[in-house]
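Sample entry (412 residues):
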Amino acid sequence: MTPYPAAVPYGRLLDPAHRPDPYPLFAELAREPVRRIDEHVWAVGGHAEISRLLRDPRLSAQEPAVPGPDTPPGSDGNPFRGPFLRQDPPHHDTLRAQTMHQFVPRILGLRPKIEDIVTELVDGLDGELDVVSALAYPLPVAVICELLGVPRSEEPVFHDFAARLTRALDPQESFTAEELADVAKTREDWRAYLTPMIVQRLTEPGDDLISGLLTDGDPAERMTMVELATTLGLLLIAGHETTVNLIANGTLALLRNPDVLARLRADPDLAPAVVEEVLRFDPPVQLTSRLTTADVRIGDTTVPAGDRVLLLLAAGNRDPRRFEDPDRFWPERPDNRHLAFGSGVHYCLGAALARIEGQAALTAIATRLAAPRLLADPPPYRPNTILRGPAELRVAVGASAWAGSTPARPHS
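Predicted structure, serialized as tokens:
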């Protein structure tokens, strides 16, 4: 397999050359309710159309699979089909409910811990720094290690796995044969890395998320070892890579809009609105993919059963039919119902955690760094299509200090 030709419309979407500013291409693709960009691939960029299709049961998140003799069984007795993000009801609902039951209560009390980690990371930053490596990467990986009961000495390992697993989410049409082989090896390596942790918690359960997933509920319905490892990999990506991009994209938006940065510095209670506008304006997850299980009418076009539909979340977030002045970064925007976390049964499981981390990090950027300014604009971007964010974000700052009095903690 070779990467898609950049001359093909689908190839333009996959082309890393568009990462620094994909929004002109998104606007072009969103001029029609649905646009065919390859023989069996369609793009949808309107807010209303995406919102409806995310809830349409005729659009499946499940990838077609041909189980082989080595395919392990899932906890429902059927062949394992990957993370619940890539599954449809009813088994999706079972796995998601188990995960939410253990995940959500654990994040509710994490705000003070997250703010302590941010303070630890930001205090003392001075001169030239990379926001990605100094804050955006280490914060969420420290939090996910805390949730899983993994010592912080393992953070570099989690960081490496997060980057490799994230690449696996991109459309396979953009992969070389070598990259496909690396994706398969990454999944094997991840399961091998987690297996001793899982086995240890089977005999010595603690109060961490892994132990909770292993011991909660009816033993007959619990996740298999492969399902558990895959779910933890999904949480690593959802709880890490998306937050990295949220913090980096948010910092970039603030530094490009110094008036907003000044307002956040003066009033840290603006942080929740700033984060929501970052999620709309430059979302960490740019698009999601579905397969039609029946003919689906979109506008005046019928998309045949069996075709792929790319829901361009980032395009819907800048739909002028839904948002006034959509290319403006405006935290006080009324009725900011963006699509950054999706919708329907696949609504982002980690949305609340991402918001807490984003609010803490961007508040610190505004209040603890003196006169931050960009050193490179646009910054270099990673090539990833779906989870888009800067590879680094070079910033110059003065002495790290509080700007005035100690700011209040932002509201949820």
